[in-house]
Fold:
Amino acid sequence: MTGLSVSGITKTFRVELPREDALSALVRFFSGRSPTRTFNALEDISFSLAPGAALALCGPNGSGKTTLLKVLAGITKPCRGAVSFTGKKACLLGFSSILQDRLSVKENARLCAVFFELPGTTAENAEKIMSAGGLAHLRNARAGELSAGMKLRLPFMAALLSGAGLFFIDETLAVGDASFRAKCLAELSALKRRGAILVFATHDMELARGLADAALVLDSGRRIFLGPIGEMPEAAGAAVPGAAFRSGLNRYPLLYEKLKTAGFRLAEAPPASDEELLLVHSRSWLDRLKANDLTPQEEKSLALPYSRQILPLSWRMAGGAIAAARAAASSGNLGVFPPGGGHHAFPDRGEGFCPVNDIAIAARVLLKDGLVKRPAVIDLDAHQGNGTAFIFSGGEVRTFSAHKADGYPRSRVRSSMDADIPAGAADGVYLEAVKKGVKDFLELAKPDLVFALCSADAYEKDALGGLKVSMEGLGERDGFLFKTLAGLGIPVCLVLGGAYSPPEEAALINFNTIMAAAAAYPSFGKTVSV
Ligand SMILES: [Zn+2]
Structure:
């Protein structure tokens, strides 16, 4: 038995740029080719597995799991790096394509016997495959009449009988029913005991923990984690920033339901104009957001692997914040825009899920329209508001940020006032720092409108916040903030920023925040921008 050794696998694709501007037309005219850019599907992936070991490949869709399996199986060539293994490989990737619905179960079993190069005669092997899969009594049925899970038993059993020493398995393992899955797991465990190596891609953490010894977590082709399965972060998804962001998005429908039930009206704000975004951002950044033409480095910094769907939302995000800020300024009480809070965005680049800085844009729109003179930002997200601090470093808008002392973001910019809260701080330490900071800041800034970023990510169950504040603690924070501001007669534009705890809890925290604000401003018209 030999081990599997994988060193420095890098796979790059060239993709066409999805744009129709003058430059692209010129490139096409002179070169005869469409302009392209490089897309790194896998970046420098190395690991080795001893005989009898199983590796789970985890990460969101599009993270590179299937590409890596294809490279390992020899279906795709890597641009750099090498795979070394001596012995027979069996590849269970997209294996439904081997099967022919118009043929009988027996004929499909014969196809599988040939495909997996089983030693012995094809007829005998077909019988073995059918009986191992519990399909012998259905030998004359057409494969098309079987459920997807039943059909998959054929290639799966053929692979097991092939005598291979290295198995590649994709997510299709999860297609089978519970009893077939249990049988697969038992068979795969037996293979491991006989010294076979397994590499399988999965979203199923239970399966990963049950079968694998080690895990490799990928995001955008990069290694996020490689190590013993027991040391894999609690939710592999949470180790992947893009996945945490997407899970955070799942709270909005729950939050909106709660708001509607509580009698709030949801009003869709129009997207902001280019002119409004240009009050903060550079033309070149906006052009590149529009064309979805970010460099790999920029995509990495933004941590949005699925930027294609997210980036066009930038204009809507800014529009929502502007609408809520106008509502606050004109009513003198409260405006609310739950998705707002892109506080890591700089004028010419995005960071940490924030392509544009909606708070800064809304503040400049209000200043330009003469609706406010001294707006200020109170940023209670668990991460420092570096982009907002940078944009307003000239002092035109005062900023206060209360956040975890170290960790993300590494590139910090001083706010007018910062409260660095030690990592892991619970209610007592957190609330003291926030309350003192808010009081001192309001005396310093004397604002005529406050943008309040009241995120839920200081919550103890948040995957990315790094603080340990309870739900009650967050309630006390919000109650204090809104009562203080209302007591001073300061209107508030409330945005809710990020949340990476389970969606039900994140939605509840966000809902409680809005309720606390509405309670402090009883004349609030209960219209929330979305
Ligand atoms: Zn945050």
